[in-house]
Amino acid sequence: MKEKRETVVSIVMGSDSDLPVMKEATSILEEFHVPHELFLTSAHRSPERTSLFADEAARRGVKVIIVGAGMAAHLAGVIASQTPLPVIGVPVDSSSLQGLDALLSTVQMPGGIPVATMAIGKAGAKNAALMAVRILALEDEGLRRKLDVYIRKMADNIEKKQQKL
Amino acid sequence: MKEKRETVVSIVMGSDSDLPVMKEATSILEEFHVPHELFLTSAHRSPERTSLFADEAARRGVKVIIVGAGMAAHLAGVIASQTPLPVIGVPVDSSSLQGLDALLSTVQMPGGIPVATMAIGKAGAKNAALMAVRILALEDEGLRRKLDVYIRKMADNIEKKQQKL
Amino acid sequence: MKEKRETVVSIVMGSDSDLPVMKEATSILEEFHVPHELFLTSAHRSPERTSLFADEAARRGVKVIIVGAGMAAHLAGVIASQTPLPVIGVPVDSSSLQGLDALLSTVQMPGGIPVATMAIGKAGAKNAALMAVRILALEDEGLRRKLDVYIRKMADNIEKKQQKL
Amino acid sequence: MKEKRETVVSIVMGSDSDLPVMKEATSILEEFHVPHELFLTSAHRSPERTSLFADEAARRGVKVIIVGAGMAAHLAGVIASQTPLPVIGVPVDSSSLQGLDALLSTVQMPGGIPVATMAIGKAGAKNAALMAVRILALEDEGLRRKLDVYIRKMADNIEKKQQKL
Amino acid sequence: MKEKRETVVSIVMGSDSDLPVMKEATSILEEFHVPHELFLTSAHRSPERTSLFADEAARRGVKVIIVGAGMAAHLAGVIASQTPLPVIGVPVDSSSLQGLDALLSTVQMPGGIPVATMAIGKAGAKNAALMAVRILALEDEGLRRKLDVYIRKMADNIEKKQQKL
Amino acid sequence: MKEKRETVVSIVMGSDSDLPVMKEATSILEEFHVPHELFLTSAHRSPERTSLFADEAARRGVKVIIVGAGMAAHLAGVIASQTPLPVIGVPVDSSSLQGLDALLSTVQMPGGIPVATMAIGKAGAKNAALMAVRILALEDEGLRRKLDVYIRKMADNIEKKQQKL
Amino acid sequence: MKEKRETVVSIVMGSDSDLPVMKEATSILEEFHVPHELFLTSAHRSPERTSLFADEAARRGVKVIIVGAGMAAHLAGVIASQTPLPVIGVPVDSSSLQGLDALLSTVQMPGGIPVATMAIGKAGAKNAALMAVRILALEDEGLRRKLDVYIRKMADNIEKKQQKL
Amino acid sequence: MKEKRETVVSIVMGSDSDLPVMKEATSILEEFHVPHELFLTSAHRSPERTSLFADEAARRGVKVIIVGAGMAAHLAGVIASQTPLPVIGVPVDSSSLQGLDALLSTVQMPGGIPVATMAIGKAGAKNAALMAVRILALEDEGLRRKLDVYIRKMADNIEKKQQKL
């Protein structure tokens, strides 16, 4: 596990084939200098490893968990049921149903255990990291300023793109 | 737990509100005199209870597990990942999406851990029990004969209903 | 506006007809003694009021915004685009499409502006409040202990319901 | 902004990646010699720019606004909420859900603020321009005649294509 | 036909069972004092009546046509193909598919003939009338002022409802 | 129009881009030696041509009409409303929605005017021709025998393919 | 079986609960004086009865078979695979999925065996009978005239309903 | 037919184009040394062959039947209706609807005849074989041990993949 002691955000994937999608999240966390790790575990193929991870995450100092999974994407819900930390779910489009299965499996959590669900695929992975930043920025003034800059830059970029049109 | 020592089929529900649906399964098992139990546990609200159940089922002599759950219905998959027994999933229609969420969350299992998925709702619960009977009948000649009678009766019933038309 | 000075969570609704759904969120926040307010504004019918709200929320000390809206549910995304606070979206089932329109309008946010989307309807409203609690508990040990108790109680309740079965 | 003083139709896009789709609209407006502009702004990444645009459009003499956007396509609704001009929405297929998300986010507007929604993608962009022409032709006899010719030509083209079959 | 000589907006329905939905449109047009008529014709059961209507609408002084229809809702498209006037389509929820059939049949028009599609059902019928008002207000200063008042009132209403909350 | 005097089945398409799909129908009709024609007309772009075709088809001796169209596929319904002949509809997959729009627009006809709808795409076009053959075979003993042979051959082919497996 | 010697159209149902839907078909056939029968058989619960029926239908003089079934509606396809007669399928809405399952199970027949699919539910049952009439009218001048009258009456009815509006 | 006398699992396909999908099932059965056969038959194009197969399977010693089919996938249900053996269905994605048609046609079986449905496509085929193994392992201690090893290896593989990340 590419863990660093000070890991604040843990990015979990159900399969290494989800990596190209979830890299969108790592890019954002790197841009914001948020210490993070990549963790591979499956709700179904490695249930014990998943339980262990969920159980220890808070103790290890992790504050936010981002989970990407496809098909009957149970991973985010299963982890959320075993940790009090906020869990952000990213449905991955990895079946013929284009991620609709992963979306509904992630977002339609019954009352009691929430999963903060993002859009299907890369946009969702990027936004998962930005949601983690928004949460962490609540108690981190520096991060809040970076977030304000990031948001302003998005608006500026649009004006620049307008020039090129 | 309404367990009897000789329990062969365990019917698991994610919520007691699933009972009216899952009773279709108990009726069939009673009709076929298959010893069974009703077990209540949630993939999300009682994950440890769920793990314990899954872990012990085989040892307790259970041969087939039927699982009913609604919304992001992870329960069947989560149990299947912790037992080598055949698990039959019944998607329950308990959200505004009419069971489509439960169906996809149950049936779209990634390769490695199978869940034998039935139709949404009461027809599915009934068929889950009949699928359990088909499995058990492979090694139980008496049950096989009852199943043959049951199948014949269904055909006869249609002819009787034709008379009344 | 039923605001209290110390409001920490703001629950925003696009229409007063969303109230029966969003009350699930207020119940949870009351149970956890999290100061909150109910705010009514529409992305489309009162855009200025919405902008003003979004713009001032952080300054007013609000930490998490929960937004419920139906149909083409733009409200959560529109607010998220004008605040750096974490925004949690609850799709409300208020058209013939059973909330599928509200779900997709809320969750499928393009990269850059995240909305933490919950399940359609009451389960989603309840979970939105629980997600807010999880976020606030990151820096509030007392809240974290209440959350741990809440989670344990859910598991206990299932065992009690099993008795009655 | 490629604005001309006399701009009558404004074509707005949420992202420059929508350009290949929205060019179908500019082609039609060029064919009908309707002065138009291309304007890039995002409901979420540049909300102020969007508000400013919507607020000023009528004053600048714009008569019809065409808006293309993908995913949770809020842009058309957000603009419509800030202008009394007719707004035509074009859902763009830019997620794994094939434009269904953009379609529902655009068309399912709650009562009060209408968006005239077209088909997903290029056919929709083309028809958005033709709808703008139909609206403008109500008070422009010359444009009406061009429209009549255009409609007749479509029918003639089909007869020509029949020959080649 | 409840026609008045000066009819400006024609509201067309495929079946008299669509009346409860389409009355949302007449209410708005009455509120704005826009002369209108209710016309009953089916794309399939009275094709000649439909053609005659479409053919004569412009000559009779009609400026905007609003069309409500359910199931395989061809009526708006069929009328749009036989008039150069702007046609606004309202999908009516009158089958087991909850208006999804009517929505797709109305909005997915191929390139060449546009139908300005509104939300399914009553919200859509109301917005169809408001879209007609927006179009007519382009050349009618009085109507434009009424529209501005209407839009302001919607925002005010939300503030009033906030008080009652 | 590639018409032959004795045309019995008319294959109509809304666009020449539907030809690769509809050729599956011509192949079958050639195999069964059923005289047929290919006719190009659009419900929306050439409504008069469509009406004329529908009106004259029966008089010209045509017995069955096969219609292929995509998106908001009104063509089959529009023709069926203007002829007493049996009309068979083939939904063509020509939008991002994969033919679901064309399927619902073709099959969900309101009571009164039937369209015999086939599967989306090539399988549907092939089956449309086979349905035409089944209808014509009711009064044509020779055709019936060819149909029996065709059906038998399909079964034989499967046995041959088994060998190769 | 309520068979009359001269039965021309056979209406088959998968369950007696489909009767309220399929009565729409019998009403039309009675109106047109087409001799018909109601036959109850299930693709799954009485497969032999189904095969026997399909096998003998043509020999008994039946010319068109109408089949109504719900859920995974295999009955129309199964009958079509065992008879050369034209088979018309009516998807019945009898599960939580509102007939979408029955529609796709009926219409998406693979190439080789066609089922002429109608709309879901009562409109579809009515149209199934009208499609049977259109087929029979090809060789029955009297029936053709009745059909022409029926079609004219539908148009007249709309004009009468217009009066009452 | 590539039958071996001792065949325990029969893998049935509706078309030889389903082979690349169903090979996922044969690979698993080979890995577990479960004697199996590949059988090609279509519910629609070879109904007699299908009936014969279903009728004889149990007598030939087959214990579990795996069925892959696409579109209106009736094959699993049709076989299940003619055998008391457990039937596992694999929906194959072979139409423009991405396997949704095959999924609903397979899983939504009416009460009485169960089909144990797996995920669409390759993951489903693989899991079908693993479900067969779980069923057979109920009475075969050796197979049960292999299954335990297989399950453990899946978990180990994830840890290995973590290293490489």
Structure explained in plain terms:
8 copies of one chain form a homooctamer. The first copy, chain A, is α/β, with parallel strands linked by helices and 165 residues long. Chain A has one domain (9-140): Rossmann fold (3-Layer(aba) Sandwich). Helices cover 47% and strands 15% of the residues of chain A. Chain A has helices spanning 19-31, 47-57, 75-80, 100-107, 122-137, 141-164, and strands at 9-13, 36-40, 64-70, 87-92, 116-117. The first copy, chain A, has a 5-stranded parallel sheet with strand order 2-1-3-4-5.
Strand order of the largest sheet of chain A: 2-1-3-4-5
Q: Tally of extended strands of chain A?
A: 5
Largest sheet of chain A: 5 strands, parallel
Number of helices of chain A: 6
**Cα-atom radius of gyration of chain A:** 16 Å
The parts of chain A where pLDDT drops under 50 for at least 5 residues are: none
Task: Give the helix/strand class of chain A.
Answer: alpha/beta
